[in-house]
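In response to reviewer comment 3 from the previous cycle, which asked for concrete evidence that the modeling workflow produces usable outputs, we include below a single protein chain processed end to end. The sequence was submitted unchanged, and the resulting structure tokens are shown without manual editing.
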Amino acid sequence: MNRRQFIAAAVCTIGWPLVGLAQRTGSVPRIGFLGLGKSEDWTDQIEALRLGLKRFGYREGRNLLIEFRWAAEVAELDRHAEELSKLNVDIIIAPASTQVEPALRATRTIPIVFAQHADPVGVGHVASLAHPGGNVTGVSMVLTEMAAKGLEILVEAQPGTKRVGVLWNLTTPTHARVLSALEEAAMRKSIDLVGAPIRTADDFNRAFELMVNDNVTSVLVPSSPITNARRRSLAELAIKHRLPTMFANRANVEAGGLMSYGPNFNSMYRYVAFFVDKILKGEKPGDLPVEQASKYELVLNLATARLIGVDLPSILIARVDEVIE
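The workflow returned the following structure tokens.
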């Protein structure tokens, strides 16, 4: 059994023995969670994290405590990261690059684990995937390549497409690299991109109006904590303007978005438990290789396709991994 198979088996095994830090020292370890948005917007991911921890033998409130900090906007993340640092938690879970940066500003000693980082090497959060170094590691997705593939599928869904809007986030450190990858992909397809930058969910309406006024015929939304959390608002805007929209997160399609191409986010949050367990047992985050999501799925909401009047090519529908009616 190789290392990846071992990890997968461990994460899927019910009743993992109670061998965490609490048993070894008699103390109860504390995990900090640096969230962005409202807690209710992250219910699925938090439950996935709890399930992963449970399968490694950790029961919240019994042999593990989780200190949640929820920032209403990015500007509040530094304060919450400082709070978790001063509490001297054993680990800080900083889900994406947006949260990793303030966590790193707060501490270079407390281990930081990410769950859905788009490009940890590209933005300098780890030295390499195999040897992260420092105090950061976790689970990553290849958002640059994933976004380019999403653009390709979005164009395939609407033959003849020439103008595509990109709803990107100014506060997401990885999005500058994502835009570069999208521009290269668009050039190969002779597609014009219309960038619609946002900072908060309050910018959604303005961004869609900008794209509509610039005559886009579809929209691509690279993954970010804000767009993942406020998925229903985005779906409603896309339906209102009858714009086919490609996301990276399946949850956006469940909320009414047209399509998504990306990894299973809940699986990635369950996987975080592997890193938590290893670190609580004494391993250094810098010695734990970053794990990358290996399976990417295309999900389609047929009800939304009918609602916005999009007739998708049958060859594309045949390739879909999951259809939501």
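Residues 3-141+264-292 form a domain with the Rossmann fold fold (CATH 3.40.50.2300). We consider this sufficient to address the reviewer's concern, and the full set will be provided in the supplementary archive.
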